[in-house]
Amino acid sequence: MYLEEYQAGTYERQTDYSAFIPSHINKQWEWRTPEINVLLEQANLELGRLGSYSELVPNIDLYIRMHLKVEANKSNRIEGTQTTIEEELMPIRDLDPEKRDDAREVQNYIRALQHGVDRIIRDDFPLSSRLIREIHNELMQGVRGEHKTPGEYRTSQNWIGGSMPSNASYVPPSHLHIPELITDMEKFIHNDEIYVPLLIRIAMIHYQFESIHPFLDGNGRAGRIMIPLFLLDSGLLKKPCFYISDYFEIHRTEYYDALNRVRLNQDMIGWIIFFLKASVATAKSARVKFGNAVMLVDEYNRLVPQISGSTENVQAIFDAFYDNPIQNANVLSESNSISKQTVSRILAAMHEKGILEEITGYSRNRVYTMRKYLDVFRI
């Protein structure tokens, strides 16, 4: 079947609204649009370069964790959170109360994505309906929406926009259709008897998941987490180093419009072209960020011997900032089993050399940021 002839689905009339039922996607798909061939080639080339680079760089897992935190910030900003990456890296107790809910949602996103990565890499567990529900359960713990059946597909109607289904901008299928639609999507993820390139598959899977909207809340975040997990599960990447939400957040209107045009105008080609362009840009950007991180860390490592104290303690403090570039002496002391006096002395020396910036202006309980390192991933 050709993607140019894709039929997005049908509408099912309810009492005072119509719910959209997306068509099944577990089929052999082809296309006549040459632009897809060129973009697919570019995207695979850039992903290959990123994958090779990620397997060669020392300490890449450290940089990936930082990359993941920025992904969490961007994905949640698409959903309307207002906290900055700096605020999300600080302990929640140190934030203004009105920002704590947003920060918790971001931290849950990090945990949910890491849970999925661990299940696939450590447990050899496939991307599946069960894993999607596990991820959703992690996303919704202790945050807004925690009472909307975390980890369970909905058993009632939901909608997007408006105050009720009758004035909503989009009404997904009735919950009665969810088991069948999720089963079809899951089969498409793992179907070895069809010949659909992996990036085309995940583009269609992301659209399909967002159209099914199987949870009462958190569908956008869960759907974006599925993208890097699919690349890991399929073997296209060996490391979890591809996070596309930055591109989606920058092009938020185009992102939503491309998804909506599939449902409204049968334009699956347009959505896939957008997704492939996003994939090319994301893979290039990630490789540049990792390269810049390596160069900056090499520069800082040359400064380690110039800071008084045992090399082991100094290096531990540097490594802590590479994992989370906003820290204070109390946390560093506790997490590294180094006396607070020693930690404070190391922090002062790093500050004097311009490695760290102090961001509170206080004389006590100071908080430091390794801003140049943070900017590598944020920009």
UniProtKB/TrEMBL annotation:
It comes from the Bacteria. PROSITE patterns: FIDO. Gene3D superfamilies: Fido-like domain. Residues 127-277 form the Fido domain. Pfam families: Fic, Fic_N. This is Fic family protein. The lineage of its organism: Bacteria, Bacillati, Bacillota, Clostridia, Eubacteriales.
